[in-house]
Amino acid sequence: MQEKEKLKEWTEGIPSVDAGAERKARAHMDQLTKPRGALGELETIWIRLAGITGQTQPQIGNKRVAVFCGDHGVTAEGVSAYPAEVTGLMMENFSRGKAAVHVLARRFGARVTVVDVGSRLENVPDGVMDRKVRRGTANMAQGPAMSREEALESIRIGMETAERLKKEGVQLAATGEMGIGNTTPAAAVAGILTGKSVERMTGRGTGLDDAGLKRKREVIRASLEVNRPDPTDPLDVLAKVGGLEMGAMAGFVLGAARHRLPVVLDGVISTVAALVAVRIAPQSQPYLFASHLSVEPAHGVLLEELDLQPLITAGMRLGEGSGAVLAFPLFDAAETAAREMATFSELGR
Ligand SMILES: Cc1cc2ncn([C@H]3O[C@H](COP(=O)(O)O)[C@@H](O)[C@H]3O)c2cc1C
Ligand SMILES: O=C(O)c1cccnc1
């Protein structure tokens, strides 16, 4: 299938949210024994879940984080505080269920699915799905990170993952990632898609010092200069200065929206991927929830661009989907309130 047809098919399959179900959920919230609106974002969560699922009593018991892994050629420029090998080591850690995202997911009753879309590992550890498009991107400071075809393929794998999770009965999904160096493409894509400066969008990632941050900004400027991505063409931006796990998370959003599966975003990489998805298909925006506000400076700008409110500010800058998992208990709180609280009409009976 040609690229244009593919994108058209992916975009057109996304239903609009159910305004009737939203109205009923809102009316129910207003009847509960509390001042109107007093449960704040919990009320918004419940009402939005109703619209997304088309059910006035949405189910969210089956929660899953999809973690996509990829490596980055741009790490050759010294843009991360950690060596590129850590991506593979962390995938080993995922396999053992000992990474932050796993321990938090266990704590909050969620499961983790790990998909390798582009790590450098030849053999992936047990339990990690090998869907590699290529072994790491090329160095974007010297040319495009990947081809358009590869970018499209990463999106397709993300969509397929969302579809699979939906079939497995997942009711609330989150996106996370692992890829040393990926806050560099994240800042580049975020800057291009929002029109903000490299200065504004670039942060310290895993913990660069001042000299490292200066270098990272120079590398991003050089990458934009060399590649000249077209801000009106999200696929061009993704291919030239993005990453494979970013493409897969964008595809995951498109696939989830198509199947009425709500998606909780994590930090800056997960959120920039969602912006790529929304630029491809604006109809996917209503299926998104923000979780926390990352320390990375681009994150707040991206959330604003997506018109999303972060639920938590915890000073986190980890990734993996860890911040998204942290928001799951707030979804449970919304569900419990909606299902178990008395209504005013029940009082005094
Ligand atoms: C041990 C370790 C575990 C991680 N888990 C997520 N990240 C996070 O840090 C990386 C991005 O930051 P930068 O662009 O500065 O490399 C990504 O892999 C992201 O998921 C980690 C980073 C490290 C070192
Ligand atoms: O915002 C994030 O998710 C993030 C920040 C720094 C490093 N890795 C991820």
From TrEMBL:
Enzyme kind, highest EC tier: transferase
Phylogenetic lineage: Bacteria, Bacillati, Bacillota, Bacilli, Bacillales
One family name in Pfam for this protein: DBI_PRT
Pathway participation: Nucleoside biosynthesis; alpha-ribazole biosynthesis; alpha-ribazole from 5,6-dimethylbenzimidazole: step 1/2
Protein name: Nicotinate-nucleotide--dimethylbenzimidazole phosphoribosyltransferase
Origin species: Kroppenstedtia eburnea
GO biological process: cobalamin biosynthetic process
Entry-linked SUPFAM superfamilies: Nicotinate mononucleotide:5,6-dimethylbenzimidazole phosphoribosyltransferase (CobT)
Annotated catalytic residues: E320 (proton acceptor)
